[in-house]
Write a structure and sequence with these properties.
Radius of gyration: 22 Å
Strand content: under 5%
Order of helices and strands: HHHHHHHHEEHHHHHHHHHEEHHHHH
Number of domains: 2
Number of helices: 22
Shape: globular
Largest sheet: 2 strands, antiparallel
């Protein structure tokens, strides 16, 4: 990697990291744009609530498949071809969903869009981690989550503007198409931008070395800044690859820990815990919370946009701190904040009266639930949201990085699907028990990080790989590097 003094990083690297993170923007945009369209879709195709919920969630299965396939595509053809494929899938899905003729057509294009989201969720952190200098890798890798939250904000804002322009999401806007259709078609703009950016980026130098193309890797290192130490970094990467080939590990995900390498399991469990705290469904009753403390229902759209802005801002906190205080302290603090806020929400809803969406939180419990839900968003957004993506980009060995990241991301999307699918039934049975369940997973996330996740702050990718690799033979060495 280019020579820099501590605290400095070549502008070229920052630009390439930002460009690589555009996939995260599409990730956030495409997964959230459906929020403003779901009611209009339900009316357009006369859908039951169950079918509507499945159409929203089915994209997550496409995400899991896309994430799993992305690793194989990236390892065989390169990081950039995978980015380009993701952009094409985004474009096709956006147009297809916007022009869908029936419910099956709609579901098909939602799955295609999910494939694109899954690919973007894998390639962005892998690419950024592989071009970043060690002292700035955490901050640059956190751009993935910043891009995701910015994409969510952009999607909600776009939905609000289009719905307001047409006087309703179900009203005609342009060319005889309803506003909800234009919400999906609008995703073509960032998708085309992502595809164009993918055509301008240099290939990951670590991928080039893995394929034996040393001259191209040397040129890429030179493009990242001062290339005076490119040869030493190439030798370091080659030495790591040679050690892996001589040792028990190969370019396979298989290992001694229940069929996989320990580091792959660490990535999978981090991904699953990130979803099992309930981040993607915690606001299913957000409108009720706001109404319980005096807000009118029509203000919910504006409140959602404001919440998205808060998500962006708290991600900046993680970016500022991840390379200063490390990954572990941020994750541990986030787990404590999530656990405490979810416990408070469980307690508040224990005093709720009413059923379904007609719930009232008497006395002080409305404000308690409202504050707790926002503390949860801040705790997650400043810790587990961005930092898990940082770790997923740096803990896996070079020969299996893309595939292992794809495996972990697929597990994350499947966990997301499960939480989304089971939340309505859990909530109708007992909201206090639902939030208490999420609190238990938040507690589990604390202990998992404390005992199984080493600190990688300040380490090169090769050093981080070696640190995690020791757990195959010595699983009790998680304390190393704390």
């Amino acid at each position: 990697m280019p020579k820099t003094t501590p605290g400095q990083v070549p502008v070229r690297v920052i630009w390439l990291s930002v460009a690589g993170a555009v996939g995260g923007f599409l990730f956030g945009f495409d997964s959230s744009v459906v929020n403003g369209a779901v009611d209009a879709m339900q009316d357009e195709f006369t859908l039951s609530s169950g079918v509507t919920g499945f159409l929203v969630a089915v994209a997550l299965l496409g995400c899991a498949a896309g994430a799993y396939a992305a690793g194989k595509i990236a390892d065989r053809f390169g990081r950039l071809p995978a980015m380009k494929l993701g952009a094409v899938l985004f474009i096709i899905s956006s147009i297809g969903t916007g022009l869908a003729a029936d419910v099956w057509d709609l579901g098909f294009w939602r799955v295609i869009g999910g494939l694109g989201i899954g690919i973007a969720s894998v390639i962005a952190p892998a690419y950024i981690s592989e071009i970043s200098p060690r002292h700035m890798r955490g901050r640059l890798a956190s751009l993935q989550q910043l891009a995701i939250t910015t994409g969510i904000f952009a999607a909600l804002l776009t939905d609000a503007i289009l719905a307001a322009t047409a006087d309703g999401a179900d009203q005609p806007l342009w060319l005889g198409l309803e506003a909800w259709r234009w919400m999906f078609i609008a995703a073509v703009v960032p998708a085309v931008a992502y595809g164009w950016i993918a055509c301008t980026l240099p290939e990951s130098p670590r991928y080039l070395i893995l394929k034996g193309n040393l001259e191209a890797a040397r040129k890429t290192f030179a493009q990242l800044g001062s290339g005076t130490d490119a040869d030493s970094h190439i030798r370091e990467i080659q030495d790591t690859l040679n050690q892996e080939q001589r040792g028990t590990r190969t370019a396979s995900l298989r290992g001694p820990a229940f069929g996989l390498h320990s580091v792959v399991w660490i990535g999978i469990i981090l991904s699953v815990l990130q979803q099992f705290v309930g981040i993607n469904v915690i606001f299913y009753y957000s409108t009720t919370l706001w109404k319980a403390v005096g807000f009118k229902e029509q203000d919910s759209f504006t409140i959602s946009v404001v919440t998205a802005v808060v998500n962006v801002l708290v991600t900046l906190i993680a970016i500022a701190l991840v390379d200063r205080i490390g990954r572990r302290p941020i994750l541990l603090a986030g787990s404590v904040g999530m656990g405490a806020s979810l416990t408070a929400m469980a307690a508040a809803f224990a005093f709720a009266t009413g059923t379904g969406t007609e719930i009232t939180l008497p006395g002080i419990w409305g404000p308690v639930a409202l504050v707790a839900s926002n503390v949860f968003v801040v705790s997650f957004g400043a810790s587990w949201g961005p930092v898990v993506w940082v770790l997923l980009g740096e803990i896996f060995p070079s020969p299996i990085r893309a595939r292992a990241l794809g495996f972990a991301a697929a597990a994350q999307w499947i966990a997301n699907f499960m939480v989304t699918l089971f939340f309505p039934a859990m909530a109708s049975t007992s909201l206090p028990l639902t939030y208490a369940t999420y609190a238990v997973f938040a507690a589990a996330s604390y202990f998992f990080v404390k005992y199984k996740v080493p600190e990688t702050k300040g380490l090169s990718l090769e050093q981080a790989e070696t640190l995690f690799a020791t757990q195959d033979a010595h699983p009790d060495l998680a304390h190393v590097g704390r």
